[in-house]
Amino acid sequence: MSNQSVHGSRSSARDRADERESTAAVRLEGVTHEYGSTGGRFRSGDERTVTALRDVSFDVPEGMIVGLEGPSGSGKSTVLHAVAGLLVPTSGSVELRETDLAALSDSERTRVRRHHIGIVFQRFHLLPSLSARANVALPLVQSGVPRADRRARATALLEEVGLGDRTTHLPGELSGGERQRVAIARALSTDPDVIVADEPTGELDTATGADVLELLTDVGRDRAVLVASHDEATLEVADRVVTLCDGRVDDVR
Questions:
Q1: What is the pLDDT of residues 185-232, one digit of tens each?
Q2: Where is the segment annotated Disordered (predicted)?
């Protein structure tokens, strides 16, 4: 991986963005989403709902990192879930390379997510009984890749993220930073077009978080990355930052 520092200013990140092709890998247009609650009904009989997103529109260009910020409850997780195809918005569209995910069936959306979207979770979501290599290879099992090929792919990815000597270690034998690197390698296993990351440094100390950010910066050179975070250091590596407030886009910078 590159040894380049990831702590440059946001202005320099924007300068990099200006030099890149601005083709949108992901496009949200007028996305609104309402969650029904379990708290009963109004007197009118209408089901109680919570509007998590209101007319949200922005692009995630290919070869760029877009940061998503906002207070808890602002809608960041709902945006990530919509982009990852884990939910269908109430209205509006979420396009992945001009394919509207909301227009797909559940099975079609699962297939798109399996082959084109990599997800990095805050708390890693590694299976504790599987080795680092087996965790990285798991999406390839689901895609029907032969065992020898997925083993080779997982080994190569772990070497790429600096864990070539940890392939047989269980998650419980790894540090937090190492587990997040395994999670990123797993997200890359299908060579996706888009990486969606939810607070990727939230469980890490400052130094370890910086290493993970460097890795994400390298990852973002040839694919689209959407990362939600409260952490200013994480947002500093973004080429563009979208601010959400009460489910709406409040600012783009």
A1: 999 999 999 999 999 998 899 999 999 999 999 988 889 999 999 999
A2: 1-46
Cβ–Cβ under 8 Å, residues 183 and 203: no
* pLDDT exceeds 90 at position 7: no
Strand order in the sheet with 47-61: 47-61, 24-41, 91-96, 99-100
Q: Degrees (nearest 5) of the Cα angle 234, 61, 113?
A: 85
Nearest residue to 243 (alpha-carbon basis) of 127, 75, 47: 75
Tell which phi-psi region holds residue 75, choosing left (phi > 0), alpha (psi between -120 and 50) or beta.
left
252 CA to centre of own chain? 19
Q: How far apart are CA 97 and CA 151, in angstroms?
A: 29
Q: What is the CATH number of the domain that holds 241?
A: 3.40.50.300
Total domains in the chain come to 1
The mean pLDDT value for 228-240 works out to 94
Measured CA angle at 176 (ends 173, 182), to 5 deg: 75
Domain annotation covers residue 207: yes
pLDDT at 22: 56
Q: Which two tokens stand for residue 22?
A: 């601005």
How buried is residue 77: exposed, middle or buried, by Cβ count under 10 Å (0-12/13-18/19+)?
middle
